[in-house]
């Protein structure tokens, strides 16, 4: 009897374990079932696409006096919402900084990042970039009365940069004898230059073309530093269907001349009249 009872208890324990595991399997299956939906389908079900943009980087992404989001990246974001959800107003713009663009994608705070995001090999290890929609290199701007005439003149001086940008990475790797002063927000970065906390400022050349044109007391020291790179939408590594959709979208918009339209609407008045749009955007 003791052996029979012991055997019965063992069988009962095994059955309880099996039932427990089966229950867990069903629960996981339900979660997995929800997870099988593609990102595009989930965005359509939500009825809104969340796009990360800058709030202080005119003319690419900034907040107007009436509180609305405007700029070249925002212009593209509204078009994406229109083509994806049938209504350009079905977009939620989420403000972010250069240093947290990847984090916002990984934590799913946004579906897409359109924040002057330069494509680099290091970033491609963490996020997926779609087809590019803008060209970019690095530039340096300094006060007009400054003796700085080239990047070499910055050795031993202080260069202001944004934290987490290609400018910070480039000068850290290539010019260790230039002291870097880094800030998170673009507003802080440019104010630091105006206040004289640094001798010059490095950023995307496209932004500096606009800023120096609107701030006549400053000059472009060098507007073509480093490699010629591209700016593209970025998505989470898991969202391959959204990546494919964006690739088709960017190709279609380029073929239609959309980016020239966006340039004329959001960038043209911020650049000097002799700026060639083809140096900034991809045209059909």
From TrEMBL:
GO terms for cellular component: extracellular region; outer membrane-bounded periplasmic space. Pfam families: SBP_bac_3. CDD domains: PBP2_Cysteine. The keyword Signal applies. It comes from the Bacteria. Keywords: Signal, Transport. GO terms for biological process: amino acid transport. Residues 48-270 form the Solute-binding protein family 3/N-terminal domain. Coiled coil: none annotated. InterPro entries: Bact_solute-bind_prot3, Solute-binding_3/MltF_N. Belongs to the bacterial solute-binding protein 3 family. This is Amino acid ABC transporter substrate-binding protein, PAAT family. It comes from Anaerocolumna aminovalerica. The lineage of its organism: Bacteria, Bacillati, Bacillota, Clostridia, Lachnospirales.
